[in-house]
Each structure stands twice: as structure tokens, then as C-alpha cells.
Amino acid sequence: MELASSPSNPQASTEPPASGRPSMRPSLMPPPPEPSAIKRYTERSLHFFEHVGVIWHMFVGSIRAGFRRPFEGRAILKQMDSLGVASVGIVVVTSVFIGMVMAVQFAFGLQKFGGLEYTGRVIALSFARELAPTLTAVIVGGRIGSGMAAELGAMSVTEQIDAIRALGADPLKKLVWPRLLASVIVMPVVAAFSLVLGFAGATMITDLQFDIPAAFFLRSALGAVTMSDFAAGMIKTPVFGAIIALVGCHFGMTTKGGTAGVGNSTTRTVVVISIAILIADFFLTKLAIILWPQN
Fold it and tell me: 258 CB contacts (<8 Å, ≥6 apart)?
């Protein structure tokens, strides 16, 4: 018997038999090597910039579509109700308790150095410039963005978005533009509401626990905060609203994989919105300091 025909010979031919059936013999080819760390990070970076490009294209397309008739006024009002009015409950709870926590922390720290009377000024500046706009955007943005991603993701996996295109309508105008404009309009209002509630919670806890009269607390706080401080915080909120709407719509409209894909898109939306808001907050804070420098 020849060695070439022996099944135990490792050098035997791997060609399929004459009958045409595939050979059951295991392949002798080694597995492909794993990509290097540099290649993995390069691919992730390219994937990130691809997402940024798609979101920018969605933003520009939505702005252009918004100026074409019909103006989708009823859809915009519906989204404002869904995004703003439905978020009042979570805004009330988080703002009041954040104000109370910050009041306790600042008052306890300043009390060690004999500066308890400065508590109102520190809390007012912190809330006006940073806490009210940013924390409200992160907390409310997670709720709003996840809702957008889940709603549009369900439409994507059931091919409703493809049906809108097949009927000759623009999904950017029908789906993205109302949510984008509603988020930009609603976020400043929600942040201002959060500022008032957080400051009220701080006033209450300092009066009850640290014996700081509410009248003195309000007088010292309002004397420290200027319109430039208020504007430095409020200028961030439309940008935060645009980030929330664009990220939620992007991950929702690109959802694939059925119900599991909808859950994955919702989770990714919350994570990306939180990170994007914090990154944007840094650059917007630097811009606000340039526009309204402190004297």
C-alpha cells in the first residue's frame, strides 16, 4: 500500500475524492493571528469617527429638512410634551435632593473654617454655572435619549423607517427634526426649573440644620450671582439638547438584530449621551469663561 493513500499519513493529499464529496480530514492551516493592539485601537478610532460623521450628516440634513413644508408643528408639540412635561417628576426629585446634598456638604466644610455665611454664595454659583445645566442634562438626557432610541429602534427592526422612505417621505424630517427641535427648546426650560428647585432645597436644609435664616441665605446668594453666571450655564443647555436628540435618533435608526438590538441600542445611547455631555461641558465652560470673564 502506498503512503500517499494512507489516512494516517500527515502528508497525505487533502484533495477531495473523485466522487465530489468534501473531505472530512481536518485542515492543516494554522488559525489566523490575532490583530495587534495598535490595529484594534485604529479600527475603534475609525469606527468612532464614522459615527461622528453620520451624526453630523443627520444634523445638517435635519436642519435643511426643517425649513421645508410641512413644518411638522403638531409633531414638535407632541415631542415637547413627551420630552419636557413627562420629565418634570424626575427633575423635581433629583434637583431638590441634589440641592440638599450640596448644601450639607458645603456648609459642613465651610463651618470648619468659620465661613458658614458664604454657603449661599458658593451653592448659588455652583448651581447656576454647572450643576443645574449639566446634571439635569445627564439625568434627563438618559431618559429622553433612551426613549428615542427604543422608539426608533423598534421602528427600524420592523422596517417602518424603510416604509417611510418607500412612500417618498424623509425620515429626517418626520422623525429626527421634531425630536431635535423639541430637545433644544425643552432643555433650557428644564434646566431653569432645576435651578430654582435645587436652590429651594438648599435653602430649606441650611435653615433647618445649620440655622442659616432663609432670608439671609437668599440675599447673599442673589448678591453673588450675576446674569453672566446664569447665562454661562444656560448657554450649554441647547447644545446638550441637540446632543441628546442626535445620539438617540442615530442609535435608534441604525438598530439591527430584533429586540436584542433595541436593548443594545438603548444601552449604548445612555452611555454615549452621558460621556458626550461631560466632554461638551468642558469646552462650553471654557467658552463661557472667554465670553464672560470673572472680574
Answer: 157
